[in-house]
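Model it.
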Amino acid sequence: MVIDTEALSARYREASVDLYSKRLRITNFHNTQQENDLTEPPNCKGFGRIRHFRRSSNNDWPCNPLPIDPACRALGLQATNMIRAQVFQSAACNWRCWYCFVPFELLSANRKYSEWMSPSQLIDLYLDQPDPPSMIDLTGGQPDLVPEWVPWMMAELKERGLERQVYLWSDDNLSNDYFWQFLSDADLELVATYPKYGRVCCFKGFNSESFAFNTCAEPDLFDRQFQLIKRLLELGIDIYAYATFTIPAASEIVADMARFVDRLQAIDHDLPLRTVPLEIQAFTPVKGRLNDGTQAALRNQYLAIEAWKTELENRYSCIERSQSITDISLHTKQLL
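Modeled.
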């Protein structure tokens, strides 16, 4: 079954945001399947979790510097291989990626597993703990079903004088243009100029086939991902990218990967150097979704990563490839 992204986005947005009271539905992890995969018990009365972002990876997969390097640079910290983050998770997503580590029952604005929370309440919970992390991660789900969440959190942090002490990080699956539909010019300016904010946008595949297989969405929405990230870059936001390389068929991986990197470079020559492929692993919710096609996709991602590495080696020098991801300048940025 193919997801109607526009209809589902509208439905979940309506169920996920209370604009009058500036609240949105936030997952409570207590008594959920996801709780079993957490390395530490949920915190913030169940509405948060501590995540340890680690640079290292398994096999020969490239290391993941996100959001470690952007956070360390913004906070003036020395380089490290692990950083703690306070995670708050929105309770809805408009796609159903088979490899998502979040159980699908937590992605439908389900009132059984979520409650209305305001940024003020979230920051209160964040501060009311010993040694709160210096980074807050707004994740999902798809946080941009409620794009107001990011500027609301920024305004709350500024109100408390925390805007230079806390690094804010958010995810975006590049599925809709709600960022421009629902945010005011003042909101856009706040997000674009906020001193310690980074945003990671996830390409759900490297061609339309892998995208549709991964998300259950229409294949042509793969193209819109490139349009949306370009618009975000033009605002001057500190943007990074993830990409997932799971695909059921291995026949055209090399050629399709070359075209994927071409499209990234068409936005900015160095955007591939700010793009981090994610190795997909079978967390507890994923195991129940595995079948012949997804098992093949898990294997094929290792063919795809070799094609990705070859493309980068052919297009960039060793010195360029060895730069910190935060030292890669993208020239599409411009002032509002």
